[in-house]
Amino acid sequence: MQRTTQVSLIGAPTDIGAGHRGASMGPEALRVAGIGQALTQRGIRVVDRGNLGGPMNPWTGPVDGYRHLAEVVAWNRSVMEAVAAELGQGHLPVLLGGDHCLAIGSITAVARHCQATKKRLLVLWLDAHADYNTSSVTPSGNIHGMPVACLCGLGPPELTELGGTAPAISPDCVRQIGIRSVDTGEKKLVRDAGLDIYDMRYIDEIGMKRVMEEALSDIDENTHVHVSFDVDFLDPEIAPGVGTTIPGGPNYREAQLCMEMIADRGGLGSLDIMELNPAFDEHNKTAVLAVDLVESLFGKSTLMRD
Question: What is the pLDDT of residues 282-302, one digit of tens each?
């Protein structure tokens, strides 16, 4: 990221694709935790664009395998247009979610921008889940478990073709880090796609430093790095404020090292912060931790490296 780049905060207050209510409060929790002020203090120009609007969550069951598909499409279209507008002005968009289905809109916009500017896209998907489900392998129909599959062309055409063509990206654009919960049917889809996954077993075996060196190894000056940060990436012991807690995630230092190494490598062009759910949090501590990690992603280092 260039120091002259404007960071634009875009709130998307909806839990339209989730299985629990509450992620709609995520953007405000991040603002209360001081995300704008934290980045401003790092010498970054920050503009808060406020919140996008969209349909209310009807909280109904799945229809033809998907819950709230029309509403999910509407929200993702708004996100896609807002992110595209910021990228078109040379700004760095930070999407404040909201549930992770919204990454379909944000990453579709980023992929189209990269195509137009002849940049290579690298998506770093920090998450406990692979999010590569389809309606045929998940009975819940919750679309927040499907965004990577939709982006890679597996899913309803309303989402796979959100940007006009499908797929929006190819699986080789994606590096998934911190994965520790993959549904049985989803495992076959992930293997068939050849998705590059650095799961928690691998992190335990070789350590976060080597994992990040591998994941970031081919970034060059023509790479646009998009980080899609699901807060459930973190171990719930330190980050309880999510709807889908999965034990055994990265601890505080592992998460900090992950973010610091992304910052050191350079190329950050866009960011999602997803699935923060204040309804499950303790005194907003997960939002405060998320802001702390985002500061590291934008260059705050430990000790004397700052």
Answer: 999 999 999 999 999 999 976
Residue 303 pLDDT grade (very low, low, confident, very high; cuts 50, 70, 90): low
**pTM score of the predicted model:** 0.97
Nearest to 227 by CA among 94, 39, 91, 52: 94
Would you call 185 helix, strand, or coil by DSSP? helix
Q: What is the DSSP string of 221-250?
A: TTEEEEEEEEGGGS-TTT---SSS--SS--
Asked whether residue 113 is marked as a ligand-binding residue, the answer is no
What class has domain 6-300?
A: alpha beta
264 annotated binding-site participant: no
pLDDT at 3 over 90: no
Is residue 230 annotated as part of the catalytic site, yes or no?
Answer: yes
Instruction: Give yes or no for a contact between 27 and 51, defined as CB atoms under 8 angstroms apart.
Output: yes
Q: Active site includes 232? A: yes
